[in-house]
Amino acid sequence: MKWIAWSRAQLLRITDRLGPSRVPAAPPPESLRVRSPDEGTRWTCVERQRISWQCSGSLWHPCDVLLERRTDEGWSLVALLAAHVDPRSLGTSVVVPELPAGPYRVLITSPELPTAVCSPPLEISRS
After folding, report:
1. Is residue 64 a contact partner of residue 110, using CB atoms and an 8 Å limit?
2. Under a CB-based contact definition with an 8 Å cutoff, are residues 34 and 87 in contact?
3. CA atoms 120, 27, 88, 86: torsion sign
4. Which regions of the chain are under pLDDT 50?
5. Strand-pair partners of 66
6. Please, is 94 exposed, middle or buried when counting C-beta atoms within 10 Å of its C-beta (0-12, 13-18, 19+)?
7. Whole-model pTM above 0.85?
C-alpha cells in the first residue's frame, strides 16, 4: 500500500508542474464529537439518560455506545450501553446499569471512525 501513496505523490508532483491540480481532493475523515454527557454530569444507577453526538461527514456504519470506568490502571470497559446505533440519529437513550459509584466516561466506536470517541468524565452514583 505504501507504493500507492508514493505513486500518487509522484503523479501530483508531475501534474502540478503542468498546471493546476486536476486530482480531486480526498474527502475529509469522518469525525464524531460527544455533546452529552458534559463534563461534571452526574448519573444515578437505573435511570434513563440521553447520550448525544455531533457528526461531520457521512457516517453510515452503526456505532456501539460503551461505558468505561476509571481505575488506578486507567480506563477499563465495564458495559455496553447500546449496540448498532445509527450514527445519523445523533444520539440514543440508555439505562444506566447497576455499577459501583465513581468516575466513568461514554465511549462511542464505529469501524468508520479513525479512533473511538469519548465523553468528558462523568460521575455515577447509586440511588
Report:
1. yes
2. no
3. negative
4. 21
5. 80, 107
6. buried
7. no
